[in-house]
Design brief:
It is a single chain. By secondary structure, this protein is an all-alpha fold. It has a domain of 42 residues. Helix content is 45%, strand content 0%.
Amino acid sequence: MIVVLSALVFAASSDTPVPAQPHERFIIVGFDGMDPGVADRLIAQGKLPHFAWMKQHGTMRLSRP
């Protein structure tokens, strides 16, 4: 038990960096010239099912300069 605790203390005080945990992936999709009102209307009408899925499972918002 003491050996295990000593090893943990030694590892915690080491100068060796701890590897970063992997992050979730994300994708940014942008459409130049697309009217967001038209896109919302088409999503509501069921004509853009993939956009609807992205909006429901992620986020969708305007990008302003």
